[in-house]
Amino acid sequence: MGTPPRTEWDYSGIVAAAYDHYFGDEPFWDQRFFEARLRGNGGRALELACGTGRLLVPLLRDGLDVEGLDTSADMLDILRHKARAPNLAPVLYQCPMQAFDLPRRYRTVFVPAGSFCMLVHDEEIRATLACCLAALEPGGELIIPLDVEEPAVREKHEWRLRRDVEVPSHQARVRIHERIGYDPGTTLIDWQLRWEVERSGQAVERFERKHLLRHHRADDFAELLRAAGFEAVQTRRGYAEMESTDPSDDTVFTARRPQH
């Protein structure tokens, strides 16, 4: 298959600010799961693609030692601002997850909310897993949730509303419509977003973004982890204490760096 084009993920300005309002209030759907896992592993943790701190801020507030990494300076600035109220001082790195080499080692590295799918090229995927392995202490755990259910959409469907949020910091209302297509031959999801930004007394600002996501099948991703040098690869469905039987729930992959 040919090399897919590079996809642009520009989380700056209004895009970063709107993102911070997508998920509602605590507890988030995966919050208790990650808190329990990080406590069980002990030590320091690293969240990749930490964004505006949906998980990182409450995990820090609740006494866990967690650092964050993201490519977006604006997202990290929002995270720092949110951390001031509970008097937190997060350790943050602005860096792509496929090219990080940090001074510390971690008991846990995790990539929540399917953000790993933003990596579409084989070399990016392999590089990210290599960085994760190197960042872990011997015996440390990698956690990556993915939606492994085969996407139902083949051809792009009609536009549909995805988000409708107020963004007070920009005195704006943001509506985002999406349409999605999927090529099972390449396992690439074609994701188009149409933005409408309304501000009082101003013309509506409109722009579009085109993204690619990589769909992973469960067996294939488990093999990628083993090929990268991880062991004890396991999967579970969903984030509840009792494993879900709903095939649409995320599959959470866990794997460990060998002790030797």
Give the radius of gyration.
19 Å
The sequence of SSEs as H and E is HHEHEHEEHEEEEEHEE
Helix content: 10-25%
Regarding quaternary structure, what we see is single chain
Tally of alpha and pi helices? 6
Shape: globular
Largest sheet geometry:
7 strands, mixed
Strand content: 25-35%
Roughly how many Å apart are the termini? 37 Å
Poorly predicted parts: none
Main-sheet strand order equals 3-2-1-4-5-11-10
What is the residue-mean pLDDT, rounded to a whole number?
A: 94
User: What's the total number of strands?
Assistant: 11
Overall SS class: alpha/beta
A few lines on this structure:
With 260 residues, the protein is an alpha/beta fold. It has six helices and eleven strands. The two termini are 37 Å apart.
